Amino acid sequence: MSTANYNTIEPVKHVLDRLESVRSTGQGKWVARCPAHQDKSPSLSIRAGDNCGVLLFCFAGCPVADIVAAVGLGMADLFPPREPGAHRSRPMAPRIGSSDVVEALKDDLLALALFFRDVASDRNLSAADMRYASKHAMHLAAVISEVQTSGR
Ligand SMILES: [Zn+2]
Fold it and tell me: If you placed Cys at 49, which of 88, 94, 96, 131 could pair as Cys (CB 3.0 to 4.6 Å)?
């Protein structure tokens, strides 16, 4: 491995080393169990960003700051170290792709669509149905707020 390569992969390697159930899903892409919530199936998406930063996205809506804190890192660890004397550029926040958003919201949208279909057909809804729908609605809101924060 060359020195240049090593520098490039360092931030993401740093993060991956601290996560559980890490699985590669493609070039520069992984999933793992989110350390910031009780994650049964891997719902944390990890990507090596174009700017060599690390993009973290929990499909359950955990804030990125909570995820890095849960593994003992800080937000600065998601970015490559600045070269001494290098021009100080504004840190670029990794962007979440639209496919990530669709993937994160798919289950919620489906659950809510089915819920409202039942509402529209006057089906008797149980308290469990209500809780289920409200859980998905809250997840939906959490993901949207996360996307808006990281897209800023
Ligand atoms: Zn999470």
Answer: 94
Question: Which residue type sits at 81?
Answer: P
Which residues have CB less than 5 Å away from ligand 1 (the ion)?
A: 34, 36-37, 58, 60, 62
CA distances from 18 to 28, 35, 73, 97 (A): 17, 9, 9, 24
Ligand 1 centroid to residue 59 C-alpha, Å = 7
The answer to whether the beta carbons of residues 64 and 37 sit under 8 Å apart is: no
Query: Could you tell me the pTM of the whole model?
Result: 0.52
Residue 10: predicted pLDDT: 66
Q: How far apart are CA 75 and CA 148, in angstroms?
A: 17
Nearest to 51 by CA among 78, 26, 73: 78
Is 123's pLDDT higher than 70?
A: yes
